[in-house]
Amino acid sequence: MSLIFQKVREQLHHRLPFVCYNKPNSDKIVAHFQKGATLFDLDYNQCGFAFVSFDNQKRYLFPETHSDLYFETISESDFIFENTSTTNWSEADKADFEKLVQNGVDAIHQRQFEKVVLSRKETFDVGTFDVEMVFKKLIFNYKTAFNYCIYHPQIGFWMGATPEQFLKIEEDFIKTVALAGTQLNTGSEQVKWNNKEIEEQQIVTDFIVDNLSLISKKVTKSNPYNIQAGSLIHIKTDIEAKIENHSDAEKIINLLHPTPALCGFPKLESMQFILENEGYDREFYGGFLGEWNKDYLTFAENKSDLFVNLRCMKVENKQISLYTGCGVTKDSNPEKEFFETVNKAQTIKKVL
Q1: What is the pTM for the complete model shown?
Q2: Calpha distance 181→294 (Å, rounded)
Q3: Any residues with CB less than 8 A from the CB of 180 and at least 6 apart, and which?
């Protein structure tokens, strides 16, 4: 048993908070083990690990000053897993989600908003849950993702493998991405996108660039390109901005979060539709998380590395709640959108 996961089990037994994570393309696991059970609010001047909800109302920090830090190098010998997954789903769940998507499409045609991201929660029982095994399976399967597990007695136990950067802040530079559009990776060199996915991704790009321009006089973006995330392919645009001082980061986070990739556009109108129609609380699904004011692999300060909380699950009372969503525009097909969520769910189901 690794030292980090021995400590994880101790923290869980004593109901003490912790976070473990593995950054994209890294062979290191970093862990923050909090010494007490206090729930700390996010402080823009402290260093630690941030965990923020979808609606931006729950903003928490695992502060470095109240934590013991552990580091561990991943050994290839850890990876001796067989992957199994299931694509089981019920007709009732399918019908409910297709109705939700159709309501979203109807609202778009009624000009309530241009895009909305709709999601569903799938809950199922698990007999036993080995956190070390599941976490190492995430790392093995998703080397380019941000893999994490988080526990706090007042927040719950969350795990995930997210492919999407929210913000990278380095001194006076902000880096982010517009990631949207989804299709299964068939292995073909020629990836074709229809107008729905292209439009969906462009809405995200425009929103980010327009809002960064309110803070920065120098905003640049790449051309859209394809990126693989597990068994899926998305459209991605890299975006950078120069800021005058580090304190502008707080304004930028509040302007951007949640982006149209997780909420919709315009933000307030699509958010209202989600809260009134989805029928459950997303909590931290669609929020963001990551290193806050310090790079814990180099210990360089004034650096934040934040990711959108996608491809995630909440573990509670021998049950797992799995969260998946899709972007809905005027051209969305409800059945296709449902099966997009089924495909995304395989990211987590593959490791359980």
Answers
A1: 0.91
A2: 32
A3: 197, 200, 201, 203, 204, 234, 235, 260, 261, 327
CB atoms within 10 A of CB 277: 14
The closest alpha carbon to 202, from 286, 343, 327, 344, belongs to 327
171-204 pLDDT, tens per residue?
Answer: 888 999 998 888 888 777 778 898 888 988 999 9
Please report which residue ranges of 115-213 form alpha helices under DSSP H.
131-141, 195-212
β-pairing verdict for 165-170 and 294-295: unpaired
Q: Round to whole Å and give the CA distance between 225 and 206.
A: 16
Instruction: Dump pLDDT digits (tens) for 101-133.
Output: 999 999 999 999 999 999 999 998 988 889 999
How many Cβ atoms from other residues are within 10 Å of residue 80's Cβ? Answer: 8
Query: Using CA of residue 197, residue 251, residue 55, residue 103, what is the dihedral sign?
Result: negative
